[in-house]
Amino acid sequence: MAQHGTGAQHGTGAQHGTGAQHGAKLGTGAQHGAKHGTGAQHGAKLGTGVKHRASEMKREEFRRYLERAGVVEQLTGALVALYEQPEKPTNAPEFLRQCLSGGPQEPPVDPQALQKEVAELKERCKLLLEENKELRIMLKRYEPTFD
Q1: With the CA atoms of 23, 24, 29 and 31 taken in that order, what torsion angle do they form, in degrees rounded to the nearest 10?
Q2: Measured between alpha carbons, how far is residue 45 from residues 29, 48, 54, 109 in Å?
Q3: What is the pLDDT of residues 80-115, one digit of tens each?
Q4: Residue range 22-50, pLDDT digits in tens
Q5: What percent of the chain is predicted at pLDDT more than 70?
Q6: Quick one: which of 80, 78, 65, 53 has its CA closest to 13?
Q7: Which of 121 and 43 is assigned the larger pLDDT?
Q8: Torsional class of 129: left (φ above 0), alpha (ψ -120 to 50), beta (otherwise)
Q9: Partner of 86 at 20 to 30 A CA spacing, among 49, 56, 105, 138?
Q10: Helices 39-46 & 49-68 angle (0-180, nearest 10)
Q11: Could you write out the DSSP letters of every residue in the chain?
């Protein structure tokens, strides 16, 4: 998996930098305001920069969480597996689900069907116990006694 790299190499990390680095690349708010008018004027046109920065910070924190939790690596592995399939599956989401879960999923179980099966098995068990009782009685009749 190392040959495919981490999320950071694929554009979610170091390549684009942190919010602070991103701001440094684009210039500070003051520089941006000086170029395009005052911060107040810019805010009136595009919305406040505070909301944008808060959103970027949330996004960045979430990205770091995904990397720490191993989600990025799992998703990358699943996507690489899909890419490497010689014949692409007709149901790509199901293929990805199987990759992420570790194997094919069993179909969902219907609780009513299970209840019906349990009732049928209880009835069958009852019949088998009755048959066993009858067979034991018959066996005692035909068994020689050594008294």
Answers
A1: -150
A2: 15, 9, 18, 54
A3: 999 999 999 999 998 898 888 886 656 678 899 999
A4: 444 444 444 444 444 554 454 455 556 88
A5: 62
A6: 65
A7: 121
A8: alpha
A9: 105
A10: 70
A11: -GGG--TIIIIISTTT--HHHHHHHH--HHHHHHHHS-HHHHHHHH--HHHHHHHHHHHHHHHHHHHHTTHHHHHHHHHHHHHH-SS--S-HHHHHHHHHHTSPPPPPP-HHHHHHHHHHHHHHHHHHHHHHHHHHHHHHHHSPP--
Per cent of the chain over pLDDT 90 is 44
Determine the Cα–Cα distance for residues 39 and 29; give it in Å rounded to an integer. Answer: 7
